[in-house]
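Entry type: protein chain
Record version: 2
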Amino acid sequence: MQSFVVGLGRAGAGLHLPVLAKARDRDPRLFGDQDVVACDPRRTLPRRPGLVATASIGEAAGGLDPAGTVVHICTPPTERHAVITELAGLGFRNMIVEKPLASDADDLARIIRVRRKHRLHIEVVEPWLTSTLTRRLIELTSSGLFGAPRSITIVQNKPRFRRSFAAPGHPTAFDVELPHGVALALRLAGAARVTHAAGTDLEVDGQFSPRMGGADVGLRHNSGVRTEISSDLTSPVRERRITIDFAHGSAVGHFAVSDDDDHSQLTLRANGLSEHVVLRDDSLTEWMVQAYRRFRAGGEQTRGFNFAAEVVQLLSVAKNICAEPVVPAARTETGPVAMAHHAG
């Protein structure tokens, strides 16, 4: 199948193109030998072998067979619906969409309607769900080795000043890292509702970006497990950590913090003993290969889409809890004030 990447920002040019190169090397028969086609009216790519750059979706569509093409939609969340609609009108049916699937519940409803109308097969990027570390954690929670899980804590920190100020493609901090965390929590502990949420603005040296400083959300799962997810986009260190507290032990996992490495780590503690393992974990490449296999298989593929929609719905509730207008009075002389609220 041929690949068509729409949007050449951090996700498109920085992640999807290099991961596609690795995936094509790993399974040439799945991807074929056609050039990758890419477009972004706002950016240009240097010429490189195996890549054809175009100025628009319409221009690219003229040289592609929609039935044999997978479109990677790497535009900002607020543009998802418009791009999906344009592609569907041109006959494209197989689409990979960067997380989150939509920016809010209204956008999600519009995307659901377009998907149904054109019978689209949409896969939403979720590499944590194909992670070796996640598989180990699922095995641990289902085995009962440490007893029942009681709580989950997920921390997703990284400094993100330049991108947030220069071109804030994500509406809030809830849209940057938290989609991974919420999806992971749902996979480990099942369906949930939002219990509380908080967000902060980003302000440095007179530069101000509302709701981009960080975000926190609390979940209560139907299974009784409680999850706390936090993301600080002003943190001086990078960290993607999950802690699961069980009745008789704990598990602490560290996902790779960037595309510079493809290993994760897991520490298990119980009965005064500790075990630490390092895991090979090229999760995004594995996710991409699995997605293309589903496209090739065809048929009705709804599980991944419905799961991604559930993540958007929970994040939409969390964002609505923190939805008061941002005004100067909401900030102090020393920095931003967190907007913390609880669901009714």
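Comment: The CA atoms of residues 150 and 225 lie 5 Å apart.
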